[in-house]
């Protein structure tokens, strides 16, 4: 097997384990309520704090990535997350459990952008969009691990065994990352970004001012948060309490989400590489489709039929691969020496939106009496505020990015007519 695939494969394995750590609390939300005697508001605070740390660490993690490279960041993230999961496995104290989720959020922040940074270093430019998509969607297999084997282990063997097993996988990811991952192929050294505070500050300001990075930020914000909110915390309680599904059926829908992400991610990766000037149209289509699908489900006076819930999960799950287009925008316009910082900025968009929606939904559910059909219907509506902001941001910075690049994109209707003619 070619060395490039070993390096990439171990990096992706570390990301799979990171996603397992990230989503494990969501599928064990009801068990956590009993273990820590926590209501919906406190329960959402667990995940919200984790996402606050994750989103807040994106820029520092990006700066560190530019300085120290992927190998150090992936291995550090793995051991930090394993420590958090082990602490969560052993404690029954609410403050300790919250601190454990902070560790998970911090380690998680190091992982994805570091794995993504490996792709342009080890693969030919024409393969980068597709391999980037494969990185994101393969990593989501961690959600399957949390939805199926982790959930079964939690039910059969208990909280401590389930979370200790997750921690053990984190240790394995740490060992493999140190042994196999390298920042770049032999003879192709990665130039480290400046280390001084003044130089770092200049670098961060330049990335924040870059229209491609800003376009990527709003792309990630508007595409990823709905399925992430669903998978991280509120999806399973919603499906079980408001829609009346069993735990097995709810887990099956989360697995359907992963299958959808894998399938659609391959298509989006190919289209993004082949039609780079139509990427924003793909992004806007993903956002509007999710908004319409939620409107249909939430407008029903009672629980939705199973086929409609499946369709909802399929549509919003395309948002995960869709968010990867944000990194393509950043790669087009940000210098390679600042790419880690730019990826951190882009990645923070979706998770900033996620934490806002997570916390808002928790507060609404508390105020309306808990896990009822009506309270969930109102709570999910906060998504539309994020979509409005994200669509506006994409339209504004798409125009500015095109102007800066000196690119004029013909209307799709005209291009299609000429192609047919």
Automatic annotation (TrEMBL):
Q: Does the keyword Membrane apply?
A: yes
The family database entries (PROSITE patterns) matched by this protein are listed as:
MFS
Gene3D superfamilies from the xrefs? MFS general substrate transporter like domains
Question: How is it placed in the membrane, per its record?
Answer: Multi-pass membrane protein
Q: Which Pfam families does the record match to this protein?
A: MFS_1
Q: Which GO terms of the cellular component aspect does the record hold?
A: plasma membrane
Asked if Transmembrane is a keyword of the record, the answer is: yes
The chain positions of domain Major facilitator superfamily (MFS) profile read 7-402
Location of the protein in the cell: Cell membrane
One GO MF annotation is:
transmembrane transporter activity
Source taxon at top rank: Bacteria
Q: Which UniProt keywords apply?
A: Cell membrane, Membrane, Transmembrane, Transmembrane helix
SUPFAM superfamilies the record matches: MFS general substrate transporter
What protein name does the entry list?
Nitrate/nitrite transporter NarK
Organism per entry: Rhodococcus triatomae
